[in-house]
Amino acid sequence: MVPESSEVMRYAKQGRLDKLRAAIQSGSATLWDTAPDGWSLLYTAAYNRQLSIIKYLLELGADAEVADIGARKPVDLAILNTLISGATQVELEISKAFAQKNDYLSDFDFTPIHIAVLDLYDSNDRERPSLEQLLELLDDCNNTPAGTDWAEWKSKYKKRSPLFWNTIEYFRATAYEQPITFKVIHNLVDYKDKSLCWTPLHWACSTGKGSKIKTLMSHGANPFILSNLDANILHAAPESKALGGLEDALDV
């Protein structure tokens, strides 16, 4: 463990690749140096968007899975930076650097609602249903009686977007494990992702998507849900470079 104010941490923060390389080669610093708050060299570089440092550390074998004390990983920061409004070319390149190691986006395990909020549609999804369309389907599913034949429901959407299928699958899978009299409810509008533990509303606020914030709220999204770091939507909103995200969160 090294102090947050140490030279090696400063090199990673400021993008001083020559100094960092020399420190590691001389043995005065190591690839695994970590500050007391859990920030590794890679995490520090990712937070400060230092592409050259990130590439160097990944080439040396830095572990992109090591998280800080709040369970955020370097790659989480990289992906978040690409999703916010006005992502720069450097931020996109940083995300690609991490993607060469693994498909980290799948680690978030986004629901169809998250995907519609973030416009992360599969390239093969020609229909690309809107957030409103998916939320209307979700409402319909939640209002169906116990004993619904969910396989039949899925068959109705056979030639439609896979996001419709995936939404219905939550209900089919749950119903399969329960008695036929069990009423299935899935409040996907408030489900959290697996990496940052953010709801779709957290993501809408953090990426400055004002219209989608309003759509989620009109369908009952809970603005008081906290992430694993006890962050509500007002904490998530400043992640956006657009002031609109914070303004919309405050309006909620």
Fraction in beta strands: under 5%
Task: State the share of residues found in helices, binned by percent.
Answer: 40-55%
Structural class: mainly alpha
Cα(first) to Cα(last) distance is 42 Å
Q: How many helical elements?
A: 14
What is the number of beta strands? 0
Mean pLDDT: 89
Low-confidence stretches: none
Biggest beta sheet attributes: none
Silhouette: elongated
Task: Please state the CA-atom Rg, rounded to the nearest Å.
Answer: 21 Å
Describe the structure.
With 252 residues, the chain is an all-alpha fold. It contains 14 helices and no strands. The chain has helices at residues 7-14, 17-26, 41-47, 51-60, 74-83, 89-99, 112-118, 131-142, 150-156, 162-176, 200-206, 210-218, 233-236, 243-251. The longest helix has 15 residues, at 162-176. The protein is elongated and about 70 Å long.
